[in-house]
Design goal:
The protein is of the alpha+beta class and 172 residues long. The protein has two domains: 3-129, Alpha-Beta Plaits (2-Layer Sandwich); 130-172. Helix content is 60%, strand content 15%. It has six helices and five strands. The chain has helices at 3-21, 35-47, 57-66, 91-103, 120-128, 132-171; strands at 24-29, 50-53, 81-85, 107-113, 116-118. It is elongated.
Length: 172
C-alpha cells in the first residue's frame, strides 16, 4: 500500500473520531471568503470550542458512510468545510450564521445533530437557540419564581402587622 493511501485512511479515521465526539456538525460552502475573514472566523470557532476544517468531500463521505450516516452525498459537492461543535450544540452554528450575516459569502449546506442529517434551515434554527448556560439560568429562574411568590404571600400578613404596629407607635 502506498503512503498516500495510508494518509487518506488516517484522515478518514480522524474525521470519524471528530464526528463521533462532536455534539453537532455543520457543513458549509466557504467560497469567496478572504484570508482575513477566514482568520477571524477560525478564531471565533476556537473561542466557541469548535473545530473548523476543510477536508476532501470524498474522505468526508467515506467517514460518514463508515458511521452509518447517509443522505449527505448530494451536499458534498464543491467547496466544503466542516465545523465540529464540541462544547455545546449551538456554538459552531452561531459562528457560521454570524459570519454569513457579516460577510454575505458563505452558505450552509447541511448539518448533523445527534447522528441525524438536518438541512440548512435546521442549522440556522439551532444557531438562534440560547447557549446551554443561558437555558439553565432561565430554567432556574422559572423554578425559583413559585418559591419566591410563596415567600411573599406568607410574609404579607407579618408585614401588614409590622406596618400597623409602626403606625400605632408613630401616633402615640
Amino acid at each position: 500500500m502506498s503512503a498516500n493511501f495510508e494518509a487518506k485512511k488516517a484522515l478518514v479515521e480522524e474525521i470519524k473520531n471528530k464526528i463521533q465526539s462532536a455534539k453537532s456538525i455543520a457543513f458549509v460552502d466557504y467560497r469567496g471568503l478572504t484570508a482575513s475573514e477566514d482568520t477571524k472566523m477560525r478564531k471565533a470557532f476556537r473561542d466557541a470550542g469548535a473545530d473548523y476544517k476543510v477536508y476532501k468531500n470524498r474522505l468526508m463521505l467515506k467517514a460518514l458512510e463508515a458511521l452509518g450516516i447517509s443522505g449527505c452525498e448530494k451536499f458534498l459537492e464543491g467547496t466544503t468545510a466542516v465545523a465540529f461543535s464540541n462544547n455545546d450544540e449551538v456554538g459552531a452554528a452561531k459562528v457560521i450564521v454570524d459570519t454569513i450575516k457579516e460577510t454575505k459569502k458563505m452558505e450552509i449546506k447541511f448539518g448533523i445533530l445527534n447522528g441525524t442529517v438536518v438541512d440548512s434551515k435546521a442549522v440556522e434554527a439551532l444557531a438562534k437557540l440560547p447557549s446551554k448556560e443561558v437555558l439553565v439560568a432561565q430554567l432556574l429562574g422559572m423554578l425559583n419564581t413559585p418559591a419566591t411568590n410563596l415567600v411573599r404571600v406568607l410574609n404579607a400578613p407579618i408585614q401588614g402587622v409590622a406596618i400597623a404596629l409602626n403606625a400605632v407607635a408613630n401616633k402615640g
